[in-house]
Fold:
Amino acid sequence: MEAGCFDLELELLLEGVYRRYQHDFRHYARASLRRRISAAMDRFNCLTVSQLQDRILHEPEVFNAMLQYFTVQVSEMFRDPSYFLSLREHVIPELQTYPSIKVWVAGCSTGEELWSLAILFRESSLLSRTIFYATDINPASLRIAEQGVYPLERMAAFSRNYRAAGGSGSLSDYYTAAYDGAILGAAFKSQVVFADHSLATDSVFSEVNLVSCRNVLIYFDRTLQDRAVGLFREALVHRGYLGIGMKESLASSAHASAFAEHVRADRIYVKVAS
Structure:
C-alpha cells in the first residue's frame, strides 16, 4: 500500500475508533502506530487499513483484540534499576515524613512496575500507609496486573533488576511459585486500586504524592504529551514527584516550568508550581 494512502486510511481508522468506542489514539506517535497497525493487518488478514477499520467498527471483539496493538505492552519488574534506586535514595526519605501517601502508576500495563513500587515501599516501611492507583486503557492488561501472576522463567531477570535497584532481600520473598507461574503476595493487593483511565480523554485521577508514568509519553505526539503532563501537574500535591521514562523529558513541555529536576539522570521531577 502506498504511504500516502496508508496514512490517510490510518487517520480515518483512528477517527472511527474515537467515534465508535470513545478511545482516542489520534495523537499517538505515527511512526509507532504505523508499525503496530501493519502487524494488526497481518493478524486479521486485511490487505488495507480500510478493511481493518471495517472489522474494528463492526466487530467489537476485534476492537478489544486491537487494544494490544494500539497500546505497547512491554514491561518488566524494576526496569531501569537506577530509577528505583533513585526513588529509594532521593524520594522515599521525603515520603516517609507523610502520614499517608498516594501513588498513581499511569499506564500500568500488565503491572510489573506497579508491583516493583509496592515492593520498594514495603522495604521502606511505607506500604501500609500507601494507596496505589494503577490505571490503563487496556482491560486485558489490567486483569493481568491485578492477578499479579507472571511466567516463572522471567523471575531470574526480574531478580537481577531488583538487586541492582537496591533490594534489601530476595525477590523470591515476595512471590510464590506455582506450576510455571510466580504469584505475588496478597499483602500488596489490598493497597492497590485498579481502574480504566485514558490519558487522552479522561480527567485527573486523584490527588497524589508520586506519579510514575514511564515509557508512555514516548508514544504520544506533543499535543497529547502536554495533556498528559498537565494531568500529572494537576494531580500532584505541591512538592509531589513525577517519574518518567529514561528516553522522555519535560524540557519542551508546556508544563515544564511547573517542575524542577530532582534526579536528572533518572528523569525524576518535583512539582514546584501549581
About this structure: The mean pLDDT is 94. The first strand starts at residue 101 and ends at 106.
